[in-house]
Amino acid sequence: MTQTPGRRGFLLGGAVIGAGALVSACTSNEPAAAPAATSAAAAPAPAPAGGNDAPGDKVVIGFSAPAADHGWIAAIAKNAADAAKQYSDVEFKAVEPTNDISVQISAVESLIAAKVNVIVMLPNDGAQLNQIARTATDAGIPVVNLDRVFPDKLSYRTWIGGDNYGMGVAAGHFIGKKLKDAGTSNPVILEIQGIATLPLTQDRSKGFEDALKSYGFSVTAKQDAQFTVESGTEVAANLLQAHPKIDAIWNHDDDQGIGVLAAIKEANRSEFFMVGGAGSANAMREIQADSGVLKATVTYSPTMAASAIKLARLIAQGKGMSDLLEHQVPQSITLASETITKENAAEYLPLGFES
């Protein structure tokens, strides 16, 4: 998901819980029992002294990600750093974040030269960073591939990321059920994507389309907004002008959603409801207030970065996930996409990231 500031996900499902991922302060991606402060602001709690979390062999974890010019990406970097601080046996070696492919390649080369024990990498573009990841792997340095996947499975030891298709399915079911329960026929449903050319965006759109079909509905119009506030405002304004009557909108990204909501407010439109994407704290507070069109958001939590650090530590120390029978960390872990509404926003707010 050239993937530039791409995106996002949230709570860990199934096997990931065994990794202790929910104990981390990742937004993604994040402890359900955390207090009211958001994970991006909360100090990391010490890891429990027992089992896999007990101090073990010292490991150096290299970390590389895009520039933190987006709320979700910023939360990725913070979640990773905070998770590393939980362990006395982890040295966290982060290289300068960048949106330049060649600069990220050079940065990862420096981690390989430093002979770190393991590398956690969220590539700007999985295809273009594939070779450097393979170089690290061939040099005996395991790579934990975060979010945007490398096309060559030999380039990474473990992948962890969000369920983009599942995000679309969750949004589609929320919208479809709400419209069906209201007895709405032939609804006007709009979709505001992130970056249309990215596989992650295409997966989200496909999930949304498939879920809506089960209610006999389809997307009336869609346009991409590049994951930015400015484009969110512009795209939403254009769609609002083109459609004098709207029943529902799904916006893929809560960061760009700030611009989308600004355009809706400027147009003084309120005849429809909207679903967001990613699970930002801003969106959750808006949903809690229930004073506007935003009624839900589907998660794609940055806490995945904290979980990636935990997995990298286990891999480097030759450990598996203590709650599983297998001796090794799984090769692939997909986070579940949760639907956040007014009813459960308070529970998820500690996991949100600030846009």
The gist of it:
The protein has 10 helices and 12 strands. It is of the alpha/beta class.
Strand order of the largest sheet: 2-1-3-4-5-11
CATH superfamily of the largest domain: Response regulator
Q: What low-confidence regions span 5 or more consecutive residues with pLDDT below 50? A: 1-44
Q: Name the structural class.
A: alpha/beta
Distance between the termini: 19 Å
Strand content: 5-15%
Could you tell me the CATH topology label of the largest domain.
Rossmann fold
Q: Count of DSSP helices? A: 10
| Helical content band | 25-40%
Number of domains: 2
**Count of extended strands:** 12
User: What value does the Rg take, in angstroms?
Assistant: 20 Å
Order of helices and strands: EHEHEHEEHEHEHEHEHEHEEH
Q: So what's the CATH class of the largest domain?
A: Alpha Beta
Shape estimate? elongated
Biggest β-sheet strands, sense, barrel: 6 strands, parallel
Pfam family, one: Peripla_BP_4
Family: Belongs to the bacterial solute-binding protein 2 family.
Subcellular location: Cell envelope
Keywords: Signal
Description:
Pfam families: Peripla_BP_4. With 355 residues, the chain is of the alpha/beta class. It is 36% helix and 15% strand. The chain folds into 2 domains: 12-161 and 302-334, Rossmann fold (3-Layer(aba) Sandwich); 164-299, Rossmann fold (3-Layer(aba) Sandwich), CATH 3.40.50.2300. It has helices at 71-85, 101-113, 126-138, 164-181, 199-213, 229-242, 254-267, 281-289, 304-316, 345-348, and strands spanning 59-64, 90-94, 118-121, 143-146, 158-161, 189-193, 221-224, 248-251, 273-278, 294-299, 332-334, 339-340. The strands form 2 sheets. It has a 6-stranded parallel β-sheet, with helices on both faces. The chain has a 6-stranded mixed β-sheet with strand order 7-6-8-9-10-12, sandwiched between helices. The radius of gyration is 20 Å and the shape is elongated.
